[in-house]
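Residues determine shape. Take a concrete instance:
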Amino acid sequence: MRFSSCLAAGALLVPGAASASSMVIGTGLARMCYEAADTDRATAATLDVCTRALTDEPLMLDDQVATFVNRGIIRTRLNDWNGALADYNQAIKLNPATAEAYLNKGSLVLRQMHDWQQARSLFDAALQHRTSHPEIAYYGRAVSSELAGDYAGAMADYQKASELAPNWEQPKKELARFSVRKRG
C-alpha cells in the first residue's frame, strides 16, 4: 500500500501535467484565456475572462473547444475539480478529437480521483488524437500502468516520456527505480 501512495504523490508533481493548453488564434478574451492557461496565471480574474469569452464572444468551434480546455486548466489550478471536469467533458462533447482535453482530464482523474483505469484510457485517447504533449501522456500512462501492477508497461512508457522530453528529469527518476533481471 505504501508503494501506491508514493506513486500517487509522484503523479501530483508532474510538471505541466495539467497545462497542455489549446492555442486560440486572434485577439480578444479567448486569446487572453489561452495566454493565462499557457503561462500558469490562474486567478478568479483569469477564470472570469475565460467565462466571458465563452458567453460574450462569437467564437469559431475550434476556439470555443480550446477555450473550454483552457478554462478547465485554470479551474484545475484553482482546485475546482468538478468545474474542470465539466469543461474538459464539454470540449470532448463539442469535438471528440480534442487531444488536450483528454490529456488534461486524464491528469486530473489520476491526481484527484486516483482512478488509474479511467486515467489510462484518457491518456491513450490523448495519444490516439495526437496530443501536442505526448511526453506527459506517456508519463501519466506509466503511472497508471504502475498502479495497475504492469511494471513492464510502466517502464516502457517512462522510457518513452524520457526520450520525448530529454530535459525532463521526472521520467528519469522513475526509471531509476526499475531494474531488469534475467529469468532463471
About this structure: Confidence is low (pLDDT under 50) at residues 1-18. The chain has ten helices and no strands.
